């Protein structure tokens, strides 16, 4: 009996080893097969993108790329001019430029690479390495120390800037100096805050231990900690004067002292004196009447909406060039209006999933800027644009379905993509302007202009042929499948900012104060105006392109009216 039991035990041991060996071999074979298949898929998907190409900033952490960042889509079928276009899908989904990439395994591989790189960037600095960092003696400003900071009550309450990739101490100092601030504070390695009052609560030097994202070895604050520099010596008089903007001549309020929080009476008052005084007080407006200088914000009592004839001010100048009597001169100081710059994520998930939908180049980023500053909540994105995230659109990295943002940017169309949303703000812009804006963005980024060489290349006609039909199909699809729509025309928003912004805010079921809206109006452009010389009377469209685009314009105009919306603005509807 004992002998039989011993044989059984010996057999089981051999079997156990054999099973273990077979299991290991099976797993290894499966892994090798998976790796081989992945390699084949990547090679197939690499026809348009090199396998060694670094991840563009516009690729999302959720594996979806902004279609505006993709190569030119293949031209879709021509749309029929007329309402019949609403009865059938406007574009064959197989020819859509938008969704194939979201299923491409190469993007998933690149996404993982980006995620690992981002996580590596987020690793906190070790205290042991703190001594290796410096406060950059080469910087012009004077280091004042490490101070505590609270997001609910900012220590430096002036302008705010973000650059989550290239922030340096010098960059922050220069940004604050150009806006006439005395102090520049850096936090989290990438955030810059400006102000004219030194923070009251000092912290231990070692608590400012975040390395600047754009400058290895330099300190840029820490978690709820500011590295503060004094930058007053950087502020040259010519630079301050250049940043003062004349807003116009206005009728003075009945009681200027009650309307404006800070005032100064100075013989021989000049614009420079008043602007400097108001800048130090951290007010965006400098108001001059005779020897009086008043500082404040646009408010309901002084909204800057009803300007007076400039002759009413020019006829009442004194020797120092300032107006007297019942009219006043208004100047915009370099100081940012910060009453509407605070933003956060929704504290509870939104019950209504709202899209901010537009064709690329139709002003979606600008609309997000307005919505975020009006409501105080971040907007999300169906994609990921690193350039926008670096400039403060923190909703870019939040999952687009998190419902922690007030609305979600999308350029998507098609039944499935549209019906995911409960409602949408549909932003429409002149297709001629949209196509040019998107072409500029593709070749020169959000704030630049494409070169003459770009416009004269074969890419431009190919771009128009591909994207013009997409402009039309985008609107037609949202009109057909959208559940609840608010149609906003870019041109109307630009012309009548406050009324249209109020419509958008009410559609989002938000209540906003009048002063906050006036703050948004005062900061209406944000940091999203294209820089560089714009060509005057530049006309890149051939007659053939115009004939094609005009057909699409008529189709969309008729479709909007058929759905009881206001038609396209008459300025670009063919007659």
UniProtKB/TrEMBL annotation:
Gene Ontology terms, MF aspect: sulfotransferase activity
Cited SMART domains: WSC
Domain named WSC: residues: 140-232, 243-340
Gene3D superfamilies: P-loop containing nucleotide triphosphate hydrolases
Pfam family, one: WSC
Keyword Repeat assigned: yes
Similarity comment text for this entry: Belongs to the WSCD family.
Listed name of the protein: WSCD1 protein
Species whose genome carries this gene: Pterocles burchelli
């Amino acid at each position: 009996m004992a002998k039989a039991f011993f044989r059984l035990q010996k057999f089981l041991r051999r079997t156990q080893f054999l099973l273990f060996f077979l299991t290991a071999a099976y797993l290894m074979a499966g892994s090798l097969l998976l790796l081989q298949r992945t390699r084949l898929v990547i090679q197939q998907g690499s026809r348009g993108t090199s396998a060694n190409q670094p991840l563009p900033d516009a690729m999302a952490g959720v594996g979806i790329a902004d279609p505006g960042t993709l190569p030119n889509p293949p031209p879709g079928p021509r749309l029929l001019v007329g309402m019949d276009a609403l009865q059938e899908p406007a574009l064959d989904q197989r020819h859509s430029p938008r969704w194939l990439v979201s299923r491409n395994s190469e993007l998933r591989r690149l996404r993982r690479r980006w995620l690992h790189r981002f996580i590596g960037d987020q690793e906190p600095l070790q205290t042991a390495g703190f001594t290796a960092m410096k406060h950059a003696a080469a910087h012009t400003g004077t280091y004042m120390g490490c101070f505590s900071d609270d997001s609910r009550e900012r220590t430096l309450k002036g302008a705010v800037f973000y650059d989550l990739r290239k922030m340096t101490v010098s960059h922050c100092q220069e940004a604050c100096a150009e806006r006439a601030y005395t102090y520049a504070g850096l936090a989290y390695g990438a955030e810059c805050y400006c102000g004219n009052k030194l923070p009251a609560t000092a912290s231990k030097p070692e608590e400012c231990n975040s390395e600047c994202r754009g400058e290895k070895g330099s300190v840029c604050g820490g978690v709820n900690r500011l590295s503060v520099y004094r930058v007053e010596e950087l502020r040259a008089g010519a630079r301050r004067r250049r940043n003062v903007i004349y807003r116009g001549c206005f009728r003075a309020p009945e009681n200027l002292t009650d309307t404006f929080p800070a005032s100064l009476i100075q013989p021989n008052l000049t614009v420079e004196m008043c602007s400097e005084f108001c800048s130090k007080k951290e007010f965006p407006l400098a108001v001059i009447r005779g020897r009086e200088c008043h500082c404040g914000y646009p408010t309901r009592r002084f909204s800057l909406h009803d300007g007076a004839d400039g002759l009413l001010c020019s006829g009442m100048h004194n020797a120092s060039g300032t107006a007297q009597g019942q009219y006043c001169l208004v100047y915009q100081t370099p100081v940012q209006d910060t009453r509407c710059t605070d933003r956060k994520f929704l504290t509870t998930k939104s019950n209504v999933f709202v899209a901010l939908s537009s064709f690329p180049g139709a002003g979606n980023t600008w609309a997000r800027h307005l919505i975020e500053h009006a409501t105080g909540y971040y907007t999300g994105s169906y994609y990921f644009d690193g350039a926008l995230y670096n400039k403060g659109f923190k909703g870019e990295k939040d999952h687009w379905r998190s419902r922690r943002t007030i609305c979600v940017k999308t350029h998507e169309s098609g039944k499935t993509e549209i019906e995911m949303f409960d409602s949408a703000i549909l932003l429409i812009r002149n297709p001629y302007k949209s196509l040019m804006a998107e072409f500029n963005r593709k070749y020169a980024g959000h704030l630049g202009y494409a070169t003459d060489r770009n416009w004269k290349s074969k890419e431009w006609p190919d771009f128009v042929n591909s994207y013009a039909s997409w402009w039309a199909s985008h609107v037609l699809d949202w009109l057909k499948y959208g559940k609840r729509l608010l149609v906003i025309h870019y041109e109307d928003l630009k012309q009548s900012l406050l009324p249209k912004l109020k419509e958008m805010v009410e559609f989002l079921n938000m209540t906003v104060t009048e002063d906050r809206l006036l703050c948004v109006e005062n900061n209406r452009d944000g940091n999203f105006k294209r820089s560089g010389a714009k060509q005057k009377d530049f006309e890149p469209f051939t007659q053939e392109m115009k004939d094609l685009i005009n057909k699409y314009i008529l189709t969309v105009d008729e479709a909007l009216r058929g759905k009881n919306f206001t038609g396209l603005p008459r300025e670009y509807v063919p007659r």
